[in-house]
């Protein structure tokens, strides 16, 4: 005899009791049905010319940075480089949407965002050169170490943002991740903690279509990645990731919302990785040239250039000046990267913990002894 069959037992209810109700109204959290756009719309007229010029300059500089870093891999100066060509609007907007006191948590593909935030271009490549674990002081520009493991930077961003709020610091964390990273457990854990704690953090998903060779359709059946926000109780925003002003506006609004105590936001920027996953990848094995060319027609630099030209904010001299500035940056990068770095093996132990553990001290002493022995040979 079951509980339901006991005399006087209440009838079994296959649905929750009437007292159940949603904890959060899902309607305001849902993203727009189409990616938000600014370029080519009336909204473009509302953007300050100074901001558009800054975005354009950084986009051109970023494109040249990508091509130069890719060339350095072919010359043996970099071990690997994951290019963000085609995604420059996301990279630049993420950096410019933050205040100096905020923190950026990049993935391995987000060197351009770190450079746009002020990081030395060579230091941003040091990890990919194989010289240091990170290559820069994260505190200087408030840029966390470039994260090679997928999505592990997201819980770190939530923890920092939550701690800042507990301390009363007016700080927002912006964490960047690719569409492949949304298939990792760290992504879901980070969103859940962020929403429960109402942490001042913004998640930017750069949906470039592929997790290496795996297309998005084989990763998720959701209407969009932005829809995943609703399941955790935060707003989801969908934006054209090649529309630099649109990405900047959406991220700026999300940052402002987080700063005033409104909690986290998940932003999906729909973009495309024009180059291969890295220099070790053969993208022709999983996508056709026609697909790539279709996205080249939606190039973020050309889109912004056309808008600014039509509004009289950019002429041939402006285009030439931006290109010359970018070329100067690339020349300096080549010169510095072509010089062999002088490395101290003992640096392996310098930035692991604030205070070295007994095990690290033991390992450091062992390495020092081996180096001294080699010097005596």
Q: How is the secondary structure organized here?
A:
Blueprint: H1 49-74, H2 88-96, E1 103-105, H3 111-116, H4 121-129, H5 138-141, H6 153-167, E2 173-178, H7 185-197, E3 201-207, E4 210-211, E5 214-215, E6 236-240, H8 244-259, E7 265-270, H9 289-296, H10 300-310, H11 316-337, H12 358-376
Parallel strand pairs: 1-2, 2-3, 3-7, 6-7
Antiparallel strand pairs: 4-5
Helix pairs in contact: 1-2, 1-10, 1-11, 2-8, 6-7
Give keywords.
2 domains, thiamine pyrophosphate, alpha/beta, Rossmann fold, 5-stranded parallel beta sheet, two-stranded antiparallel sheet, 12 helices, 377 residues, 7 strands
Structure description:
This is Pyruvate dehydrogenase (Acetyl-transferring) E1 component subunit alpha. Keywords: Oxidoreductase, Pyruvate, Thiamine pyrophosphate. Its cofactor is thiamine diphosphate. With 377 residues, the protein is an alpha/beta fold. It has two domains: 27-276 and 288-343, Rossmann fold; 344-377. It is built from twelve helices and seven strands. The chain has helices at residues 49-74, 88-96, 111-116, 121-129, 138-141, 153-167, 185-197, 244-259, 289-296, 300-310, 316-337, 358-376; strands at 103-105, 173-178, 201-207, 210-211, 214-215, 236-240, 265-270. Helix 6 packs parallel to helix 7 (185-197). It starts with 48 loop residues before the first helix and ends with a helix.
């Amino acid at each position: 005899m079951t509980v339901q069959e006991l005399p006087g037992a209440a009838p079994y209810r296959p649905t929750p009791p009437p007292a159940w109700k949603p904890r959060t109204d899902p309607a305001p959290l849902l993203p727009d049905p189409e990616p938000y756009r600014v370029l080519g719309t009336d909204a473009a007229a509302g953007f300050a010319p100074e901001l558009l010029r800054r975005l354009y300059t950084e986009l051109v500089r970023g494109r040249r940075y990508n091509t130069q870093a890719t060339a350095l891999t072919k010359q043996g100066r970099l071990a690997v480089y994951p290019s963000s060509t085609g995604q420059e609007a996301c990279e630049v907007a993420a950096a410019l949407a933050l205040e100096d006191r905020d923190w950026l948590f990049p993935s391995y593909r987000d060197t351009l965002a770190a450079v746009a935030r002020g990081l030395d271009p060579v230091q941003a490549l040091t990890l990919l050169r194989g010289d240091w674990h990170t290559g820069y002081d994260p505190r200087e520009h408030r840029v966390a170490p470039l994260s090679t493991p997928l999505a592990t930077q997201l819980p770190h961003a939530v923890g920092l943002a939550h701690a800042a709020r507990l301390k009363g610091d007016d700080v927002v964390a912006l964490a960047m991740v690719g569409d492949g990273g949304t298939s990792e457990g760290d992504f879901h854990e980070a969103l859940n903690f962020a929403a429960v704690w109402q942490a001042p953090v913004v998640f930017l998903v750069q949906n470039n279509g592929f997790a290496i060779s795996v297309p998005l359709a084989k990763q998720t059946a959701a209407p969009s990645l932005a829809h995943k926000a609703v399941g955790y109780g935060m707003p989801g925003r969908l934006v054209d990731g090649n529309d630099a002003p649109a990405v900047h506006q959406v991220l700026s609004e999300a940052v402002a919302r987080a700063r005033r105590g409104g909690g986290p936001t998940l932003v999906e920027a729909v973009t495309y990785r024009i180059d291969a996953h890295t220099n070790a990848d053969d993208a022709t094995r999983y996508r056709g040239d026609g697909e790539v060319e279709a996205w080249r027609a939606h190039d973020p630099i050309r889109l912004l250039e056309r808008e600014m030209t039509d509004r009289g904010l950019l002429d041939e001299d402006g285009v030439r000046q931006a290109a010359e500035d970018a070329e100067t940056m690339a020349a300096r990068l080549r010169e510095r990267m072509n010089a062999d770095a002088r490395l101290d093996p003992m640096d392996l132990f310098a930035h692991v913990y604030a205070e070295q553990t007994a095990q690290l001290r033991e390992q450091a002493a062992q390495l020092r002894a081996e180096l001294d022995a080699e010097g005596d040979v």
